[in-house]
Structure formats: structure tokens, C-alpha cells
Amino acid sequence: MNYEIRKIDPSENQLLSELCFKIYPQTFQYLWHDDGTWYMETMYNPTKLLEELNDIHSSFYFLVVNDISVGYLKTNNHFQEEENSFEIERIYLDENFAGKGLGGILLNFGINQAKLQNKKEVYLKVMNCSSNTIRFYQKHGFEQVGWYNLNFEQMKDSFRQINTMKLTLKY
Fold first, then answer.
1. 74-102 pLDDT, tens digit each
2. Which of 66, 125, 54, 127 is nearest to 96 (CA)?
3. pTM confidence score
4. Among residues 33, 40, 37, 2, which one has the least CA distance to residue 19?
5. Residue 35 maps to which CATH number?
6. Nearest 5°: CA angle at 125, between 40 and 16?
7. 35 is in which domain, residue-wise?
8. Residues with Cβ within 8 Å of residue 65, at least 6 apart in sequence
9. Buried b or exposed e, range 73-103, using 16+ CB within 10 angstroms
10. Distance, CA of 49 to CA of 144 (rounded, Å)
11. How many domains does the chain have?
């Protein structure tokens, strides 16, 4: 399978929005009373994504397979206010490409971006109800270091917990 990971230009905000609207419901629709409509319209509209794409502390990358964008990665140059940290904020992959090792490729790409910046730790957040994803991150060396509840009114109460995971980098 031929793939490439390429940085997303702010002018591609509409393409990114379309990809988000395709992928997000595949994985997270069940979390919401409205099937995630409010969340997607709020977080993944082209204007909001353009704002994020223009943030100098964040980077977005498309995962392209055979000239088709099938996923994306968002990273932040630090986690919260910790300067020696890095955050992998989003890894989204079209369900039709799951189980092919592409999630690991995106994760490792993100970890390598942290190493290029000489960061000491990589953080990410994952829904507590996503047990397969948690195991995936644990397999790659991440450990849970905290959790909190999301307070979105449209979210079902039983799915509000989100875990914070950390990987200490070794050079």
C-alpha cells in the first residue's frame, strides 16, 4: 500500500472539514444524543479548522493512500503549559483503512515530530469508552496519567470520561 503523510495547508481547510465530517461519525457518533451533529458543526466547520490551521503552535497532516486522504493527525508543540511536552491531539482514520497499520504509522509520525523538537514527553487524550484505542496506545508505551469528564450538554452521560495518557521519550 502506497501512502504519504503531508502537511495540510490552511487553504485546504474545506478538504479537512469534509474528511472530518466523514470520519468522525464512524467512530464517535454513539457518544451523542444528536449523533455528533452539534460537535462536528462546532469543531469541524471550515472556519474553525482554518483558525486551527493558522495556529503557529499546531500542525496538521493528511494521511494519503493512493492519492486519497484517508486520515489526519493534529499535533501541538506543547501540552497545556509544559514546554518540554508535545501533544498528539487527534488521530483520525477512515474505518475502511483500519487494521492495516496506518494508525501506528500516524502515531509514530507524531512521536517523531516530538523527538525532532527534543521534547521529553508526548501526551494524548482518549475516550475512556474506547478500550481498543487505549490498548493500542498502551502497546505503543503510553500510560494513563489522569482523566476528567467532558461537559458537553449533547453528550450522553455514560460516555463523558476522557483519559490523559503520556509517553516518556527515550533518545
1. 999 999 988 899 999 999 999 999 999 99
2. 66
3. 0.95
4. 40
5. 3.40.630.30
6. 35
7. 3-168
8. 1, 2, 3, 97, 102
9. bbbbbbbeeeeebbbbbbbbbbeebeeeebb
10. 28
11. 1
Contacts of 51 (CB under 8 A, 6+ apart): none
Q: Name the helix (H) or strand (E) containing 143.
A: strand 143-149
pLDDT tens-digit series, residues 95-128: 999 999 999 999 999 999 999 999 999 999 999 9
**Helix ranges, the chain (H):** 13-28, 37-43, 46-53, 102-116, 131-139
DSSP, collapsed to helix, strand or coil, labels residue 146 as: strand
Query: For residue 53, what is its C-alpha cell?
Result: 490551521
**Does residue 75 contact residue 59 with C-beta atoms inside 8 Å?**
yes
